[in-house]
Amino acid sequence: MDTLQFTQLYKENIGSLKGFALKLTKNSSASEDLVQEAMIKAFRSKHTFKAGSNFKNWAFTIIKNTFITQYNKRKKKNVVDAPVEEVHYMISESSRNGALSSLNLSALWSNIRQLSSKSQVPLILSMKGYKYEEIAEKLNIPVGTVKSRINFARTKLKNSINRDVLVAA
């Protein structure tokens, strides 16, 4: 396919491509960006398009794969995908009562210190951002054991925090 053919097929299908991207992103601006990035990829790969194939299906596949790649990158980076106003609101709400927050944090760490070291160490490493595999390697234990100990520690913490809340009420 040459550039002229690509441009013509792109113009014929742009409405469907934008609609498909909007269904994936659920955001008008993000869908425009997704279509643009995907069509750049499609243009660079136009030589792989087989004559007689369905351009729209080919482009949909590129859009879908681009969306999945972007999603996985955001997930890895743990990006907050919210408007600035909402992020500001979340931050201001969570830090409104600093004394209460530090009291809750203090109680949490007190409960963590009450855990056995077998449960405490994997939990703290997990809280610091280590992956299960990294924790397993660091502690020289199987990954399944790491998962089990972290789950046990979280359950114990949840129960002790719920107990503390009931006592305070």
Task: Tell me the layout of helices and strands.
Elements: H1 3-25, H2 28-44, H3 55-77, H4 84-94, H5 98-113, H6 117-127, H7 132-139, H8 143-168
Helix pairs in contact: 1-2, 1-3, 2-3, 5-8, 6-8, 7-8
Short overview:
The protein is mainly alpha-helical and 169 residues long.
What's the helical proportion of residues? over 70%
Regions with pLDDT < 50 over 5+ consecutive residues?
87-96
Largest sheet: none
Helix count? Answer: 8
Question: What string gives the helices and strands in order?
Answer: HHHHHHHH
CATH fold type of the largest domain: Rna Polymerase Sigma Factor, Chain: A
Structure report:
This protein is mainly α. It folds into 2 domains: 79 residues, RNA polymerase sigma factor, region 2, helix turn helix motif (Rna Polymerase Sigma Factor, Chain: A); 71 residues, Arc Repressor Mutant, subunit A (Orthogonal Bundle), CATH 1.10.10.10. Helix content is 80%, strand content 0%. The chain has 8 helices and no strands. The longest helix has 26 residues. About 6% of the residues have low confidence.
